[in-house]
Design a protein that fits this description.
The complex is a heterodimer of chains A (409) and B (233). Chain A contains 13 helices and twelve strands. By secondary structure, chain A is an alpha+beta fold. In chain A, helix 2 (18-52) runs antiparallel to helix 9 (265-308). Chain B has one domain (2-232): Rossmann fold. In chain B, helix 3 (100-110) runs parallel beside helix 5 and helix 5 (144-157) packs parallel to helix 6. Classes of the chains: A alpha+beta (409), B alpha/beta (233). Chain A binds chain B through residues 4-5, 8-9, 12-13, 16-17, 311-312, 314-325, 398, 401-403, 406, 408, and chain B through 49, 52, 54-55, 74-75, 78-79, 81-83, 87, 89-91, 93-98, 102, 106-107, 109-111, 115, 154, 158.
Chain lengths: 409, 233
C-alpha cells in the first residue's frame, strides 16, 4: 500500500519545518553517534586484550627449573635443578597422548653480524614444534626441522626485523650470518603477531646449540601445548600431574615452589575470557542505555511536535482526515527522521573511528570499529525505535478533538 | 436540509456541569442563509460545533439531509464532515506551511482525489474567489481578507451541502468584512445553504434569517430583508 500523496504530505511537513526536524534529528543522530563510538572503542579494547594473548598458544604449559628451597631425601637446600635431553624425552613419552606440541628452549644471547651491520639478539635454541607453540609465521624459507636436529646443522631462522637490521634492503635467505663468531646459514625468515620484540629473535636447532656451546645436553625450559580438547579443569589437573611427576623425578619436596615451576596458560586464558565477557556486558549496557535515551529523546520531541501541530491536526480533522491518516503522518514522519538522522549519526561515528582509530593504539585501543552486523542491527533498531517513539504521540494526535484544536486563542 | 429537535448539551466544570444548550429546535431549508446571534456564553458556537460534527450533543435529534447524526465513530464523522460540510473560521485556520493552492486542495486529498484533478479543482475554486495569481503564496504572505477568501475556496472545494461559518468577519476590518460577505451572499445566490455565527448586527442583517440565542434557548427566530453587502463595498 504505497500512497504517494501520503509521502508527499510527510516530506512537505519535514521539509517546511526544518528547525523542528533538524532538532529532533539531532537528538537521534547524537545518540547513535555516541553509541557507535562507544561500541567502537570497546571493540578496540577487546582487540587489544585479544592481541595481548595471541603471541603464544593459549593452551601452553611452560616448565622451568631453579634452585631448591627445601631439603628433601638427603639433598641440601639450594641444589640447582638442571633439565637435560632425557627429561625432555621423559615428559614427551610419559604424557604423549595429552601433548599436542612440545619443545625445549635454551636461551642465549649473541652478537650477530652480516658484513658491516651488527647487533645483539636473543637467540633461542628450539625443537621444530616451537613454531606452533609460539605461533611463528614463516615469511620466507622454512623453520627448523628434524633433519637439522639430527645433523646438528648450523642453520638459523631469523625474525623479520633482524633481516631489516642486518641485511638492510637485501634478502637474508641463503646468506651466512655470523653468530658469536660462528657462521650460520639463514634458512627462514618469520613474522610474529607478538610485536617488534618477538620479531627480533633468532632460532637455532637445540642440538646444534648443545654441541657448539659447552657440548652438553642441558635445556633451560620445556614448553608444551596440551590437547585442545582438554577442558579447563582437565588442563589444570594435567599441569598438576606434570609438576608432581617431575618433582618426584628430581627428588624435590612437594611444597618446594622454586625448583620446578610449571606455568599453565589456561589460568590466564580463563581470566581473560571472563574479562572479555564482562567488557561485552558493559558495552551492551552502555550501548543500549544510549539508544534508549535517544528513543526517549525523540519521543519527547514528537510529543512536543504533536502539541505544536495540534491546530494543524484539528484543521485536517475538520476537513475530513480520519484518525488513521493522522497516525500515519506522525508515525511515518517520526520513523523517517529517526532513520535518516540515525544513519547520519552512524556514518559520522564510523568516520570518527576511522579517523582517530590509528592514533588510539597507545591507549590500548586497537582497530576500533563496528561490524556490518551491528550497522544493520542498529539501522533496524532505529526504525523500530522511531516507530515506538512516534506511536504514543501519534495516537495522542489522532485523539485530538478538532473543536479544542480550533478554539480561538 | 437540517432538522434539530430538543438538543441538549452540557459541559462538566469541576464537580458541577454547565448546561449550555437547553433544548434547541431548529429547521433549516435548502438555500437558506441563517445568522445565529447571541452574546458570548449564549451557546451559539456550541450549536455550530454540534452541527459541524466537531462536538456531540448529549441528547436530542440532529438530522442532516435525511441522515441521523448520532453516535458517529471518529472515522465516520470525518467522512461526513468531508462530504457534507464546509467550514469557515474566524481565524481562517489555514495550514501555515502550505501555499494557498495546497490549502484549498486538502479536503480533496482526504476525499481520495488524484493529485492532478485535485489541483485543477483547487485552482478553479481559487479563481472563483479571485486569487488565481496568489495560488503559490503562503498564508503569511496574504492579507486577512485574502486568507479568508482562501478559506472560503477551501470550504467550497469539496462541494459541501452546508457551509458553516464561525464569525467569518470577526478578524477583519469593515471594508474587508463586506467584501467577504459579498462572496458569501453570492454563494447563497448560487444555491448554497449557509449557517453563520456572528455577534455583529450589520453582518447578521446580510443574511436572510436571524436566530437569536440567549442562555441556551432560542429567544427569537425571524426572517429579515437581506442587506446586500455589495452596496457597502
Amino acid at each position: 500500500m504505497f500512497d504517494i500523496d501520503l509521502w508527499r504530505e510527510i516530506f512537505q511537513s519535514i521539509n517546511k519545518n526544518r528547525t523542528r526536524s533538524l532538532l529532533s534529528g539531532f537528538t537521534v543522530a547524537f545518540a547513535i553517534l555516541l553509541f557507535t563510538i562507544l561500541f567502537g572503542i570497546a571493540n578496540g579494547l577487546q582487540n587489544t586484550f585479544a592481541e595481548a594473548f595471541v603471541d603464544d598458544a593459549n593452551n601452553a604449559i611452560f616448565i622451568n627449573s631453579g634452585r631448591t628451597t627445601k631439603a628433601h631425601k638427603g639433598n641440601q637446600v639450594g641444589r640447582q635443578i638442571q633439565f637435560k635431553n632425557e627429561d625432555f624425552d621423559y615428559v614427551k613419552d610419559e604424557f604423549d597422548e595429552k601433548i599436542e606440541f612440545i619443545t625445549a628452549r635454551i636461551y642465549k644471547n649473541f652478537q650477530a653480524s652480516f658484513r658491516g651491520e651488527q647487533n645483539v639478539y636473543d637467540v633461542r635454541a628450539v625443537h621444530p614444534d616451537h613454531q606452533f607453540l609460539e605461533k611463528t609465521k614463516i615469511k620466507e624459507g622454512r623453520y627448523i626441522n628434524q633433519n637439522d636436529l639430527n645433523n646438528k646443522t648450523k642453520v638459523v631462522v631469523i625474525g623479520r626485523l633482524v633481516e631489516d637490521d642486518l641485511f638492510l634492503k637485501t634478502t637474508a635467505l641463503g646468506k651466512y650470518l655470523n653468530l658469536g663468531g660462528i657462521q650460520f646459514k639463514v634458512v627462514g625468515i618469520f613474522t610474529d603477531d607478538g610485536g617488534d620484540n618477538e620479531e627480533r629473535k633468532i632460532y637455532i636447532p637445540v642440538s646444534t646449540a648443545q654441541y657448539l656451546y659447552g657440548n652438553n645436553d642441558y635445556l633451560d625450559q620445556i614448553n608444551l601445548t596440551y590437547n585442545p580438547e582438554l577442558n579447563y579443569d582437565q588442563a589444570l589437573a594435567f599441569s598438576t600431574l606434570i609438576t608432581k611427576k617431575l618433582k618426584n623425578r628430581f627428588s624435590v619436596a612437594r611444597s618446594d615452589q622454586r625448583a620446578i615451576r610449571v606455568r599453565n596458560m589456561a589460568e590466564g586464558t580463563k581470566a581473560v575470557s571472563q574479562m572479555t565477557v564482562g567488557l561485552t556486558f558493559i558495552i551492551l549496557v552502555i550501548g543500549f542505555g544510549t539508544l534508549i535515551a535517544g528513543i526517549v529523546g525523540i519521543s519527547n520531541i514528537m510529543i512536543f511536535i504533536v502539541k505544536e501541530r495540534t491546530k494543524e491536526i484539528g484543521i485536517r480533522k475538520a476537513l475530513g482526515a480520519s484518525p488513521k491518516s493522522i497516525v500515519s503522518i506522525i508515525l511515518i514522519e517520526s520513523i523517517i527522521i529517526t532513520a535518516i538522522a540515525g544513519y547520519v549519526g552512524l556514518l559520522i561515528g564510523v568516520g570518527v573511528l576511522e579517523l582517530v582509530g590509528p592514533s588510539l593504539k597507545e591507549y590500548f585501543i586497537k582497530d576500533p570499529g563496528v561490524g556490518n552486523g551491528l550497522v544493520i542491527g542498529a539501522t533496524l533498531t532505529l526504525i523500530i525505535a522511531g516507530a515506538i517513539a512516534g506511536y504514543i504521540p501519534a495516537k495522542k494526535a489522532s485523539q485530538i478533538k478538532p473543536i479544542i484544536a480550533l478554539r480561538n486563542d | 436540509m437540517l432538522k434539530i429537535h430538543q438538543l441538549h448539551k452540557s459541559y462538566p466544570i469541576g464537580d458541577s456541569s454547565l448546561h449550555v444548550l437547553k433544548g434547541i429546535d431548529l429547521n433549516v431549508e435548502d438555500g437558506e442563509m441563517v445568522a445565529i446571534m447571541g452574546s458570548s456564553g449564549s451557546g451559539k458556537s456550541t450549536l455550530l460545533n454540534i452541527i459541524g460534527m466537531l462536538d456531540e450533543a448529549d441528547s436530542g435529534d440532529y438530522i442532516l439531509d435525511g441522515l441521523p447524526i448520532k453516535n458517529l465513530t471518529e472515522k465516520k464523522a470525518a467522512v461526513y464532515r468531508n462530504k457534507f460540510l464546509g467550514f469557515i473560521f474566524q481565524s481562517f485556520n489555514l495550514i501555515n506551511y502550505k501555499n494557498a493552492l495546497e490549502n484549498v486542495a486538502l479536503p480533496l486529498y482526504y476525499q481520495g482525489m488524484k493529485r492532478k484533478e485535485r489541483q485543477e479543482k483547487a485552482l478553479f475554486h481559487l479563481g472563483k474567489v479571485g486569487l488565481t495569481d496568489w495560488a503559490k503564496h503562503l498564508p503569511k504572505e496574504l492579507s486577512g481578507g485574502q486568507k479568508q477568501r482562501v478559506a472560503i475556496a477551501r470550504a467550497l472545494a469539496a462541494n459541501p451541502k452546508l457551509l458553516l461559518a464561525d464569525e467569518p468577519t470577526g478578524a477583519l476590518d469593515s471594508a474587508t468584512s463586506h467584501e467577504i460577505m459579498a462572496f458569501i451572499q453570492q454563494l447563497n445566490d448560487e444555491g448554497k445553504t449557509i449557517l453563520m455565527v456572528t455577534h455583529e448586527e450589520d453582518i447578521a442583517n446580510m443574511c436572510k434569517r436571524i436566530v437569536r440565542l440567549k442562555d441556551g434557548v432560542i429567544m427569537e427566530d425571524e426572517k429579515v430583508n437581506q442587506v446586500r453587502a455589495q452596496e457597502h463595498v
